[in-house]
Design brief:
With about 160 residues, this protein is mainly beta. About 10% of the residues lie in helices and about 35% in strands. The chain has two helices and nine strands, in the order αβββαββββββ. The strands form three sheets. It has a three-stranded antiparallel β-sheet with strand order 1-2-3. Strands 4-5-6 form a three-stranded antiparallel β-sheet, with no helix packed on it. A hairpin with a 5-residue loop joins strand 2 and strand 3. It starts with 20 loop residues before the first helix and ends in a 9-residue tail after the last strand. About 5% of the residues have low confidence.
């Protein structure tokens, strides 16, 4: 007799690369989505009502907003978010007040703490490379963070 094949383990939501229908539904919690962006391993969405953010996929690549959730969606948070930009393994969100916060893989721009004071207000646009972000401010200055080999070079 042929032995039973070893069953393939079912990945948990934190192991999937964003393609899980269940993880997406859990993240948006039935809300209408205004816009959605994806990176290599996760998705982020802006909700129609309130401009809050939801994310799902690989946690270390931005699939969870736990580290910045209060900053994005809390009572004193940035919402409404007007734009989300994706690098390969991180996201950056821009609010209607010109504040920016990033999350995801720290080496890929997911940690903007080093330049957070420069991202508190006055940002009008954010763009990304594979592993870095650049924010264009209203005064014409540019703030960068992430992998210096991918476009970030603050000093």
């Amino acid at each position: 007799p042929t032995p039973n094949p070893t069953p393939t383990p079912t990945p948990t939501p934190t192991q999937v690369s964003g393609g899980s229908y269940e993880a997406a539904q859990a993240a948006v919690q039935g809300a209408a989505v205004a816009t959605i962006v994806g990176n290599n391993q996760a998705f982020a969405a802006i909700m129609v009502s309130g401009g809050t953010v939801a994310a799902w996929g690989m946690e270390t690549y931005g699939g969870k907003i736990t580290a910045v959730g209060d900053t994005l969606n809390g009572p004193d948070g940035m919402a409404p978010i007007t734009n989300i930009v994706a690098a390969e393994y991180a996201f950056a969100a821009l609010s209607s007040t010109g504040k920016v916060v990033a999350w995801g893989d720290q080496a890929s721009g997911g940690d903007s703490a080093f330049v957070a004071d420069q991202l508190e207000s006055g940002v009008k646009e954010v763009v990304a490379t594979e592993a870095a972000f650049a924010a264009l401010k209203e005064d014409g200055s540019v703030v960068t963070w992430g992998d210096h080999n991918a476009g970030e070079d603050q000093g």
